[in-house]
Design a protein that fits this description.
By secondary structure, the protein is mainly α. It has a domain of 67 residues. Helix content is 55%, strand content 0%. Helix 1 crosses helix 2. The longest helix is centred in the N-terminal third of the chain and has 27 residues. It is extended, with a radius of gyration of 17 Å. It starts with 7 loop residues before the first helix and ends in a 28-residue tail after the last helix.
């Protein structure tokens, strides 16, 4: 996504990634230590968020895999560590709105 005004859209995207990874990590840790996932929480909200987080993570990995297989490279990646010797990095294509 583009950064948006004052970088708010990019910040929201980053926070959402952290929330998904945090919920999945907490769930996996809970499963490893107690044998069950996170408790359902009030009105089952935490359990529902846990399920949605796992679905989101699986969907993101499937989309990344399909892009790597389809294009032969990791799209729009600007890694901190240069791994271009292992996986080619795609040049940026215009996005949904030509950005």
């Amino acid at each position: 996504l583009p950064a948006g005004p004052f970088g708010l859209v990019g910040a929201l995207e980053g926070i959402s990634y952290l929330a998904v990874v945090g919920l999945v990590a907490a769930s996996v840790l809970s499963k490893a230590t107690t044998g069950s996932g996170l408790p359902p929480g009030p009105n089952g909200l935490l359990g529902a968020l846990e399920g949605v987080s796992f679905l989101t993570l699986v969907a993101a990995l499937l989309i990344l895999l399909s892009l790597v297989v389809g294009k032969g490279c990791v799209p729009n990646a600007e890694p901190l560590v240069d791994y271009s010797a292992f996986v080619p990095i795609c040049k940026s294509d215009p996005g949904l709105f030509g950005l």
